[in-house]
Specification:
The protein is an alpha+beta fold. The chain has a single domain, classed as 2-Layer Sandwich (Beta-Lactamase). The protein has 6 helices and 5 strands, in the order αββααααβββα. A 5-stranded antiparallel sheet has the order 2-1-5-4-3. The N and C termini lie far apart (62 Å).
Length: 150
């Protein structure tokens, strides 16, 4: 068993990883209220963590179609399985700026999203976490290839 200092150090590392990973991490409860909003999301969306926590994603991003998003989360909560939103289905979930506007000509960040169930110790899915990947390079290359094929 780990000693308290080692457990604390591992917890600190986990928090540091969540905040600094090059991917958006968002935890939502069943009411779609933000429980975790990592540094990637703050940097790319401009929404500060302290402004996001406790608010629904529909308050923060009113452009997200609520009925559509709730339907996408249904398998996560009802079946406990992952759900996906690709940039081909919807270019983005969270309107984020493109951070490489010189090398990539896009007005926003294309995103691939994975919705993952989060279980309580008793196995109940009480929340979900969204992993948000920047798919702008992939999307622009695909769009350019499609246009060149015409």
């Amino acid at each position: 068993m780990l000693s308290l200092p080692a457990e604390f150090e591992q917890f600190h590392w986990m928090v540091d990883m969540v905040q600094n990973v090059d991917m958006g991490l968002v935890v939502l409860d069943k009411e779609y209220k933000v429980q975790v909003w990592n540094g990637f999301m703050t940097h790319h969306s401009g929404v500060q963590s302290h402004d996001a926590l406790g608010k629904t994603i529909f308050e923060l991003f009113p452009e997200i179609p609520q009925d559509w998003f709730c339907l996408k989360t249904k398998p996560v909560y009802d079946l406990g399985c992952r759900s996906f939103i690709t940039w081909q289905q919807r270019p983005y979930l969270f309107k984020c700026r493109n951070v490489r506007p010189v090398t990539q000509q896009a007005d926003f960040m294309y995103q691939n999203i994975t919705l993952n169930p989060m279980r309580t110790p008793t196995g109940v899915v009480s929340s979900m976490f969204l992993s948000v990947q920047d798919a702008t390079s992939e999307a622009l290359a695909s769009i350019e290839a499609r246009e060149n094929a015409k």
